[in-house]
Amino acid sequence: MKILRLLCNNRMEILVLLQIFLLLVVLPAAAFSGQWEKFVRSESYEVSLDRNAVRLTISGRHALWLKFVPLAEANRRMAATEYKNKKYRWHTEYYEVDCLESIGKIGFTDIMGSDGKRLGRIRGEDVLEPIMPGSVLDSAAKLICPVVEESDGQDGDTVDEQQKHNSGDESAAADISAEAEKSIASALKRTETEPANQSAWAELGNAYYDADMPRQAIDAYNRALTMNPDDADVLNDQGAMFRQIGDVTQALKNFEKALAIDKYNLESLYNTGYIYAFDLNNIDRALTFWRRYLELDSTSETARQVQSFFERYSH
Questions:
Q1: Would the pTM count as exceeding 0.70?
Q2: Is the pLDDT of residue 292 over 50?
Q3: 172-313 sits in which CATH class?
């Protein structure tokens, strides 16, 4: 059973394979221990990375947590003033990084006390921005982003106008690869010859998904769901696309409907917990879904990620 469709994305395939290789082969066993790994010092902080928590999100970005510990008492007091909490001792920051585009965003900052308990959470602006060279985030990205050789850029320069029909995002259509073009063209042809075939529309949605064209994918999945509204896989895939365009409410509805259809659906359990934790800041609700996930799967790589979430937020 697939956990996230993004693992099959043409755009992300090489990165994902390299990420799995790094996690399972290159990194030492201690990388899964949940311990913080110090990697850089700024002017005011010693900064660590939790490698155990690095993962791919349902939007195809790399998620990571950084820990900032003040280097001196003066720095701690300054941070306590900045974060308006006298009990401040250190803080963590959650980021999502697009390794291909070298952009990232901060999701939230957790203010921590001396007993390791969270004192408060500050939400980020949820805006993707270029990663500044030489910054702490730049150093972290170099650690977690697989290195892939650049393409010569000679393939897939244009997209057939038919493939861009009903497109609300011309830039996305212009940037897709030749392989993605071919998949979309093939899927479009199938929907023309088999307009009443639900799997044909699901295939078109998947082709747009792999090409990183979420709005077109959502439309195609809608056609598939009109023919079979109880297809949990399509609901999950469409939910991921809704979240990618920022419609968290509809994404959650999709994931919860998929769970109502199949209460053992691992993908839905993972994604629903993710939405509650990182979009809605409802940790208690997220833990409910992650606990159910771990009851069904405790050995896979995704289970390790869920376990790291659970250990981090169940205090």
A1: no
A2: yes
A3: mainly alpha
